[in-house]
Design brief:
- The protein is mostly helical.
- It is built from 6 helices and no strands.
- The chain has one domain: Ferritin, core subunit, four-helix bundle (Ferritin, Up-down Bundle).
- It is 77% helix and 0% strand.
- Helix 5 packs antiparallel against helix 6.
- The longest helix has 32 residues.
- About 6% of the residues have low confidence.
Length: 158
């Protein structure tokens, strides 16, 4: 087993972990917003969660090493130190729509950061895999923009 395959597998695991975190985060947001009668925003949250489910479905079969398991909950060390979404989880439960949207913005920022960190290590990725990851990063950036747009619309209305 060569170093390139090991590094590639580690990077894929990092992306699977961040998408798993995004899935859990949007599940929280869906629960919190259900009480706020905001079905259109809840639909965006569901779409973003489903997007990460689909991404993980695409990434998991690409891990080819038998000795390195898929680790949905493992976060890269650099990323884990920068993450503060967990700290916001409890404070959002009883908060207003603004707090929930800020939480979702943070999820999207963390996901974008993780993808950028992986893309920066493109020399460890084969060209086909890099293309898949860049495509996913582009989709996720659009989701990030959508959450920011919703947040700005809510603020403009208040």
């Amino acid at each position: 087993m060569d170093k390139e395959n090991i590094k590639q597998t580690e990077l894929l695991n990092d992306l699977i972990a961040i998408n798993t975190k995004r899935i859990k985060g949007y599940n929280n947001a869906i629960t919190w917003i259900a009480n706020k009668n905001k079905a259109s925003i809840q639909k965006y949250f569901e779409d973003h969660r489903d997007q990460s489910i689909q991404i993980n479905t695409t990434l998991k079969p690409l891990i080819t090493l038998e000795n390195i398991p898929i680790t949905d909950d493992r976060l890269p060390i650099d990323y884990a130190q920068k993450s503060n979404t967990e700290a916001k989880t409890e404070s959002c439960h009883e908060k207003d729509l603004n707090a929930i949207l800020i939480y979702c913005q943070q999820l999207e920022t963390e996901t974008t950061l993780a993808y950028n960190q992986v893309i920066e290590q493109q020399s460890a990725l084969n060209p086909q895999l890099l293309s898949i990851i860049e495509s996913q990063a582009s989709m996720l950036l659009e989701a990030h923009k959508m959450i920011n747009k919703i947040y700005n619309q809510i603020h403009a209305a208040t």
